[in-house]
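User: C-alpha coordinates for Disease resistance R13L4/SHOC-2-like LRR domain-containing protein, please.
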Amino acid sequence: MATELHETISMAKQERHKNLFLNYRNLNHFPVELLKDEGLQFLERLYMKRNSLTTLPDNLAQKLPNLIELYLHSNNIVIIPEAIGDLARLQSLDLSNNALQFLCPEIGRLRSLRHLRLSNNQLKCLPQEIGDLQDLETVDVSRNQLLSLPHRLHRCTSLQNLTADHNLLSHVPRQLCWLHRLNQLSMAANRLTFLPLDLGRSRELQFVFVDNNVELKGLPSYLYNKVIGCSGCGVSAQVLEGDLGEALGKALVGLPAEVKVVGSETDNVVPLEEIAMRTLHRIYQHRPTDLNLLPPITLPKSLLDLLQFPLGHCHRCSQTMFTIIYPKVFPLRDTALAGVHRRTTVSFVAYCCSSRCLRTFDLQG
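Assistant: Done. Predicted C-alpha coordinates:
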Protein backbone atom coordinates (compact mmCIF):
# COMPACT_ATOMS: atom_id res chain seq x y z
CA MET A 1 0.00 0.00 0.00
CA ALA A 2 2.82 2.41 0.92
CA THR A 3 4.63 1.66 -2.34
CA GLU A 4 1.47 2.22 -4.35
CA LEU A 5 0.84 5.51 -2.56
CA HIS A 6 4.40 6.65 -3.19
CA GLU A 7 4.11 5.81 -6.89
CA THR A 8 0.77 7.62 -7.19
CA ILE A 9 2.13 10.82 -5.66
CA SER A 10 5.42 10.59 -7.59
CA MET A 11 3.53 10.29 -10.87
CA ALA A 12 1.33 13.26 -9.92
CA LYS A 13 4.46 15.34 -9.34
CA GLN A 14 6.19 14.27 -12.52
CA GLU A 15 3.16 14.71 -14.76
CA ARG A 16 1.92 17.83 -12.98
CA HIS A 17 -1.54 16.43 -12.27
CA LYS A 18 -4.18 18.93 -11.23
CA ASN A 19 -6.32 16.24 -9.58
CA LEU A 20 -5.11 13.70 -7.03
CA PHE A 21 -7.32 10.89 -5.69
CA LEU A 22 -6.26 9.37 -2.37
CA ASN A 23 -9.64 8.03 -1.24
CA TYR A 24 -9.99 4.74 0.66
CA ARG A 25 -6.24 4.48 1.45
CA ASN A 26 -6.60 3.84 5.17
CA LEU A 27 -4.30 6.81 5.85
CA ASN A 28 -3.71 7.74 9.49
CA HIS A 29 -1.43 10.67 8.65
CA PHE A 30 -1.18 13.18 5.87
CA PRO A 31 1.27 11.68 3.31
CA VAL A 32 4.73 13.22 3.76
CA GLU A 33 5.33 12.73 0.03
CA LEU A 34 2.84 15.53 -0.62
CA LEU A 35 4.84 17.91 1.53
CA LYS A 36 8.40 17.13 0.42
CA ASP A 37 10.54 19.69 -1.37
CA GLU A 38 8.31 22.16 -3.22
CA GLY A 39 5.20 20.01 -2.79
CA LEU A 40 2.61 19.92 -5.57
CA GLN A 41 2.47 23.53 -6.66
CA PHE A 42 0.16 22.74 -9.58
CA LEU A 43 -2.39 20.59 -7.72
CA GLU A 44 -5.92 22.05 -7.70
CA ARG A 45 -8.10 19.23 -6.37
CA LEU A 46 -7.23 16.81 -3.59
CA TYR A 47 -9.57 13.94 -2.71
CA MET A 48 -8.87 12.16 0.59
CA LYS A 49 -12.27 10.76 1.51
CA ARG A 50 -12.78 7.80 3.84
CA ASN A 51 -9.39 7.60 5.46
CA SER A 52 -8.44 7.88 9.14
CA LEU A 53 -6.84 11.32 9.24
CA THR A 54 -7.07 13.20 12.54
CA THR A 55 -5.62 16.58 11.52
CA LEU A 56 -3.99 18.52 8.68
CA PRO A 57 -0.40 19.78 8.40
CA ASP A 58 0.37 23.41 9.20
CA ASN A 59 2.29 23.87 5.94
CA LEU A 60 -0.51 22.62 3.69
CA ALA A 61 -0.97 26.00 2.00
CA GLN A 62 2.78 26.38 1.48
CA LYS A 63 3.08 23.02 -0.28
CA LEU A 64 -0.27 23.09 -2.10
CA PRO A 65 -0.73 26.82 -2.78
CA ASN A 66 -3.05 26.44 -5.77
CA LEU A 67 -5.55 24.11 -4.13
CA ILE A 68 -9.11 24.94 -5.23
CA GLU A 69 -11.01 21.95 -3.86
CA LEU A 70 -10.23 19.87 -0.77
CA TYR A 71 -12.36 16.81 0.02
CA LEU A 72 -11.87 15.25 3.47
CA HIS A 73 -15.24 13.56 3.90
CA SER A 74 -15.38 10.65 6.39
CA ASN A 75 -12.12 10.85 8.31
CA ASN A 76 -11.50 11.26 12.05
CA ILE A 77 -10.42 14.89 11.95
CA VAL A 78 -10.77 16.54 15.35
CA ILE A 79 -9.15 19.92 14.69
CA ILE A 80 -8.27 22.09 11.72
CA PRO A 81 -5.05 24.12 12.05
CA GLU A 82 -5.19 27.91 11.88
CA ALA A 83 -3.02 27.72 8.76
CA ILE A 84 -6.11 26.55 6.84
CA GLY A 85 -6.76 30.25 6.31
CA ASP A 86 -3.68 30.47 4.07
CA LEU A 87 -5.33 28.48 1.27
CA ALA A 88 -6.13 31.69 -0.61
CA ARG A 89 -7.56 30.02 -3.72
CA LEU A 90 -9.70 27.38 -1.99
CA GLN A 91 -13.27 27.37 -3.28
CA SER A 92 -14.67 24.09 -1.92
CA LEU A 93 -13.98 22.51 1.49
CA ASP A 94 -15.66 19.26 2.54
CA LEU A 95 -15.12 18.26 6.17
CA SER A 96 -18.36 16.35 6.62
CA ASN A 97 -18.45 13.12 8.63
CA ASN A 98 -15.52 13.87 10.90
CA ALA A 99 -15.12 14.53 14.63
CA LEU A 100 -14.79 18.31 14.64
CA GLN A 101 -15.75 19.98 17.91
CA PHE A 102 -14.34 23.39 17.07
CA LEU A 103 -13.86 25.43 13.92
CA CYS A 104 -11.07 28.00 14.06
CA PRO A 105 -11.85 31.66 13.26
CA GLU A 106 -9.19 31.57 10.52
CA ILE A 107 -11.80 29.88 8.34
CA GLY A 108 -12.94 33.44 7.67
CA ARG A 109 -9.73 34.13 5.73
CA LEU A 110 -10.75 31.76 2.94
CA ARG A 111 -12.12 34.65 0.90
CA SER A 112 -12.49 32.55 -2.29
CA LEU A 113 -14.54 29.83 -0.56
CA ARG A 114 -17.85 29.05 -2.25
CA HIS A 115 -18.87 25.69 -0.76
CA LEU A 116 -18.46 24.66 2.89
CA ARG A 117 -19.64 21.26 4.09
CA LEU A 118 -19.45 20.49 7.80
CA SER A 119 -22.29 18.01 8.28
CA ASN A 120 -22.06 15.10 10.72
CA ASN A 121 -19.55 16.55 13.16
CA GLN A 122 -19.78 17.56 16.81
CA LEU A 123 -19.82 21.33 16.43
CA LYS A 124 -21.66 23.33 19.09
CA CYS A 125 -21.01 26.74 17.55
CA LEU A 126 -19.62 28.37 14.44
CA PRO A 127 -17.17 31.28 14.39
CA GLN A 128 -18.59 34.69 13.55
CA GLU A 129 -15.77 35.03 11.01
CA ILE A 130 -17.78 32.87 8.61
CA GLY A 131 -19.57 36.13 7.87
CA ASP A 132 -16.40 37.37 6.15
CA LEU A 133 -16.86 34.83 3.32
CA GLN A 134 -18.70 37.00 0.83
CA ASP A 135 -18.34 34.50 -2.04
CA LEU A 136 -19.85 31.63 -0.03
CA GLU A 137 -22.77 30.03 -1.88
CA THR A 138 -23.43 26.75 -0.05
CA VAL A 139 -23.21 25.89 3.65
CA ASP A 140 -24.15 22.52 5.12
CA VAL A 141 -23.88 22.23 8.91
CA SER A 142 -26.53 19.55 9.38
CA ARG A 143 -26.25 16.87 12.07
CA ASN A 144 -24.14 18.78 14.55
CA GLN A 145 -24.97 20.12 18.02
CA LEU A 146 -25.39 23.78 17.10
CA LEU A 147 -27.37 25.91 19.53
CA SER A 148 -27.36 29.00 17.28
CA LEU A 149 -26.13 30.33 13.96
CA PRO A 150 -23.64 33.23 13.67
CA HIS A 151 -25.42 36.59 13.52
CA ARG A 152 -22.81 37.75 11.04
CA LEU A 153 -23.91 35.07 8.60
CA HIS A 154 -26.01 37.72 6.88
CA ARG A 155 -22.76 39.20 5.52
CA CYS A 156 -22.37 36.16 3.25
CA THR A 157 -24.12 38.07 0.50
CA SER A 158 -23.65 35.31 -2.11
CA LEU A 159 -25.22 32.57 0.04
CA GLN A 160 -27.79 30.56 -1.90
CA ASN A 161 -28.24 27.33 0.05
CA LEU A 162 -28.13 26.92 3.83
CA THR A 163 -28.71 23.50 5.41
CA ALA A 164 -28.78 23.16 9.20
CA ASP A 165 -30.99 20.10 9.77
CA HIS A 166 -30.73 17.97 12.92
CA ASN A 167 -29.18 20.46 15.33
CA LEU A 168 -30.38 22.08 18.56
CA LEU A 169 -31.39 25.43 17.08
CA SER A 170 -34.20 27.25 18.88
CA HIS A 171 -34.45 30.26 16.57
CA VAL A 172 -33.48 31.63 13.17
CA PRO A 173 -31.58 34.95 13.25
CA ARG A 174 -33.78 37.52 11.54
CA GLN A 175 -30.63 38.89 9.89
CA LEU A 176 -30.81 35.89 7.55
CA CYS A 177 -33.79 37.59 5.88
CA TRP A 178 -31.26 40.09 4.47
CA LEU A 179 -29.64 37.32 2.40
CA HIS A 180 -31.28 38.33 -0.86
CA ARG A 181 -29.69 35.52 -2.91
CA LEU A 182 -30.72 32.75 -0.53
CA ASN A 183 -32.78 30.24 -2.52
CA GLN A 184 -33.08 27.30 -0.12
CA LEU A 185 -33.17 27.15 3.68
CA SER A 186 -33.43 23.83 5.47
CA MET A 187 -33.67 23.66 9.27
CA ALA A 188 -35.60 20.44 9.80
CA ALA A 189 -35.48 18.51 13.08
CA ASN A 190 -34.35 21.31 15.37
CA ARG A 191 -36.04 22.99 18.34
CA LEU A 192 -37.52 25.98 16.54
CA THR A 193 -40.47 27.70 18.17
CA PHE A 194 -40.70 30.79 15.97
CA LEU A 195 -39.59 31.99 12.52
CA PRO A 196 -38.56 35.57 11.59
CA LEU A 197 -41.42 37.77 10.43
CA ASP A 198 -39.71 38.48 7.10
CA LEU A 199 -38.76 34.90 6.24
CA GLY A 200 -39.90 34.36 2.68
CA ARG A 201 -40.20 38.06 1.86
CA SER A 202 -37.30 37.76 -0.57
CA ARG A 203 -38.49 36.57 -3.97
CA GLU A 204 -35.29 34.57 -4.36
CA LEU A 205 -36.09 32.31 -1.37
CA GLN A 206 -38.26 29.57 -2.83
CA PHE A 207 -37.62 26.48 -0.70
CA VAL A 208 -37.98 26.40 3.10
CA PHE A 209 -37.91 23.13 5.04
CA VAL A 210 -38.67 23.15 8.78
CA ASP A 211 -40.10 19.66 9.15
CA ASN A 212 -40.14 17.98 12.58
CA ASN A 213 -39.86 21.10 14.71
CA VAL A 214 -42.67 19.96 16.97
CA GLU A 215 -42.94 23.23 18.91
CA LEU A 216 -43.15 25.37 15.76
CA LYS A 217 -46.78 26.34 15.26
CA GLY A 218 -46.65 29.45 13.07
CA LEU A 219 -45.26 30.16 9.61
CA PRO A 220 -44.92 33.72 8.23
CA SER A 221 -47.55 34.27 5.55
CA TYR A 222 -44.75 35.11 3.08
CA LEU A 223 -44.16 31.35 2.88
CA TYR A 224 -47.66 30.61 1.61
CA ASN A 225 -46.61 30.65 -2.06
CA LYS A 226 -43.25 28.96 -1.50
CA VAL A 227 -42.22 25.32 -1.55
CA ILE A 228 -42.26 24.44 2.13
CA GLY A 229 -41.79 21.38 4.28
CA CYS A 230 -43.56 21.47 7.64
CA SER A 231 -44.46 17.85 8.32
CA GLY A 232 -44.32 17.09 12.01
CA CYS A 233 -44.58 20.76 13.03
CA GLY A 234 -47.02 21.78 15.74
CA VAL A 235 -48.04 18.17 16.33
CA SER A 236 -47.83 18.68 20.08
CA ALA A 237 -50.68 21.18 19.87
CA GLN A 238 -54.26 20.06 19.36
CA VAL A 239 -56.14 23.14 18.16
CA LEU A 240 -59.91 22.87 18.00
CA GLU A 241 -61.45 23.50 14.61
CA GLY A 242 -62.58 27.09 14.28
CA ASP A 243 -60.75 28.22 17.44
CA LEU A 244 -58.66 30.99 15.85
CA GLY A 245 -57.88 32.61 19.19
CA GLU A 246 -56.19 29.49 20.48
CA ALA A 247 -54.44 28.95 17.14
CA LEU A 248 -53.07 32.51 17.24
CA GLY A 249 -51.86 32.14 20.81
CA LYS A 250 -49.96 28.98 19.97
CA ALA A 251 -48.54 30.43 16.73
CA LEU A 252 -47.04 33.37 18.65
CA VAL A 253 -45.13 31.25 21.17
CA GLY A 254 -41.48 32.26 21.06
CA LEU A 255 -42.01 35.84 19.88
CA PRO A 256 -38.77 37.89 19.80
CA ALA A 257 -38.06 39.91 22.93
CA GLU A 258 -38.26 43.11 20.87
CA VAL A 259 -42.03 42.66 20.52
CA LYS A 260 -43.52 44.75 23.31
CA VAL A 261 -47.09 44.96 22.07
CA VAL A 262 -49.31 42.50 20.20
CA GLY A 263 -52.07 44.58 18.63
CA SER A 264 -55.56 43.62 17.54
CA GLU A 265 -58.26 44.95 15.20
CA THR A 266 -59.60 47.23 17.93
CA ASP A 267 -56.22 48.88 18.64
CA ASN A 268 -56.27 51.96 16.47
CA VAL A 269 -53.41 53.89 18.11
CA VAL A 270 -49.79 52.89 17.40
CA PRO A 271 -47.52 53.38 20.47
CA LEU A 272 -45.25 56.44 20.49
CA GLU A 273 -42.05 54.37 20.67
CA GLU A 274 -43.02 52.50 17.51
CA ILE A 275 -43.84 55.76 15.69
CA ALA A 276 -40.46 57.19 16.72
CA MET A 277 -38.59 54.13 15.45
CA ARG A 278 -40.43 54.18 12.12
CA THR A 279 -39.64 57.87 11.72
CA LEU A 280 -35.94 57.36 12.46
CA HIS A 281 -35.81 54.47 10.05
CA ARG A 282 -37.29 56.57 7.26
CA ILE A 283 -34.68 59.25 7.89
CA TYR A 284 -31.71 56.92 7.74
CA GLN A 285 -32.84 54.10 5.45
CA HIS A 286 -31.22 55.74 2.42
CA ARG A 287 -28.05 56.59 4.36
CA PRO A 288 -27.24 53.39 6.33
CA THR A 289 -23.68 54.51 7.05
CA ASP A 290 -25.08 57.37 9.13
CA LEU A 291 -26.40 54.87 11.66
CA ASN A 292 -22.89 54.65 13.05
CA LEU A 293 -22.73 58.44 13.39
CA LEU A 294 -25.69 58.70 15.74
CA PRO A 295 -24.63 59.89 19.22
CA PRO A 296 -24.65 56.95 21.65
CA ILE A 297 -27.09 58.78 23.94
CA THR A 298 -29.71 59.03 21.19
CA LEU A 299 -30.87 55.45 21.56
CA PRO A 300 -29.76 52.39 23.53
CA LYS A 301 -27.57 50.02 21.53
CA SER A 302 -30.36 47.45 21.43
CA LEU A 303 -32.61 49.93 19.64
CA LEU A 304 -29.80 51.00 17.31
CA ASP A 305 -29.37 47.36 16.33
CA LEU A 306 -33.11 47.11 15.85
CA LEU A 307 -33.02 50.22 13.65
CA GLN A 308 -30.47 48.52 11.42
CA PHE A 309 -32.31 45.17 11.39
CA PRO A 310 -36.03 45.83 11.93
CA LEU A 311 -38.28 43.21 13.45
CA GLY A 312 -39.89 42.79 10.04
CA HIS A 313 -42.06 44.39 7.38
CA CYS A 314 -45.83 44.52 7.30
CA HIS A 315 -47.16 41.60 5.26
CA ARG A 316 -49.83 43.94 3.86
CA CYS A 317 -48.04 47.21 3.02
CA SER A 318 -44.31 46.55 3.75
CA GLN A 319 -44.09 49.19 6.51
CA THR A 320 -41.15 48.43 8.79
CA MET A 321 -42.01 47.23 12.30
CA PHE A 322 -39.91 47.41 15.43
CA THR A 323 -41.79 46.87 18.71
CA ILE A 324 -45.39 46.04 17.79
CA ILE A 325 -47.14 43.52 15.55
CA TYR A 326 -50.75 43.00 14.53
CA PRO A 327 -50.99 39.25 13.76
CA LYS A 328 -53.66 37.45 11.76
CA VAL A 329 -53.79 33.67 11.77
CA PHE A 330 -54.76 31.28 8.96
CA PRO A 331 -54.72 27.60 10.03
CA LEU A 332 -53.09 25.58 7.30
CA ARG A 333 -55.94 23.07 7.48
CA ASP A 334 -58.26 25.81 6.15
CA THR A 335 -56.06 26.74 3.16
CA ALA A 336 -55.58 25.22 -0.27
CA LEU A 337 -52.44 23.51 1.05
CA ALA A 338 -54.35 21.31 3.48
CA GLY A 339 -54.18 18.31 1.16
CA VAL A 340 -50.44 18.70 0.65
CA HIS A 341 -49.34 18.97 4.28
CA ARG A 342 -51.19 16.39 6.35
CA ARG A 343 -49.13 15.63 9.46
CA THR A 344 -49.00 19.17 10.78
CA THR A 345 -51.15 21.62 12.77
CA VAL A 346 -49.27 24.83 11.92
CA SER A 347 -50.89 28.10 10.90
CA PHE A 348 -49.79 30.84 8.55
CA VAL A 349 -49.45 34.14 10.37
CA ALA A 350 -49.66 37.55 8.70
CA TYR A 351 -47.75 40.17 10.70
CA CYS A 352 -49.19 43.62 10.03
CA CYS A 353 -48.21 47.13 11.10
CA SER A 354 -51.67 48.45 12.03
CA SER A 355 -55.23 47.39 12.70
CA ARG A 356 -56.17 48.68 9.25
CA CYS A 357 -53.68 46.39 7.49
CA LEU A 358 -54.78 43.57 9.75
CA ARG A 359 -58.40 43.95 8.67
CA THR A 360 -57.61 44.15 4.95
CA PHE A 361 -54.94 41.43 4.68
CA ASP A 362 -55.85 38.54 2.37
CA LEU A 363 -53.69 35.40 2.37
CA GLN A 364 -54.68 34.64 -1.23
CA GLY A 365 -53.04 37.86 -2.37
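User: Anything notable?

Assistant: The two ends are 65 Å apart (CA to CA).
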